[in-house]
Amino acid sequence: MRACFTTCMMLTFxxxxxxxxxxxxxxxxxxxxxxxFKPYQYEAQNCRGGASKCVLQRQQRIGDxxxxxxxxxxxxxxxxxxxxxxxxxxxxxxxxxxxxxCLCSTDYCNTGVNITLHQLLxxxxxxxxYLRTAIL
Length: 136
Prior knowledge:
This protein is α+β, with helices and mostly antiparallel strands and about 140 residues long. The protein has helices at about 1-10, 115-135; strands at about 20, 25, 45, 50-60, 65-75, 85-90, 100-105. The strands form two sheets. The protein has a five-stranded antiparallel beta sheet, with no helix packed on it. A two-stranded antiparallel ribbon has the order 1-3.
């Protein structure tokens, strides 16, 4: 009975430890990555190399153009950057170039936690089954 419960729990959380998935693009070559982002034109990529976050970087306006970059960010790769989730404005000390960096730690930067409805329902069923058999 415990082996069945353990197997059920393992199946519930299968896949949660997978890599973070982020969109990787910039609007210099494809406007679909710009201000009016069209995610259906891109396939998210797995971030590699350890602890990562997704990043959206908006650079200052140059005429009518706002440079936008979406990518994976390896934690610790930029000195003095607050890497908690959220947006921050950065000014480069050499030329006063300003940009905004937004970091997030969920797939696609907007999907919430990695536990899917399927996994949540399976977990509830496992707990219900375990409690039912423990009582009887």
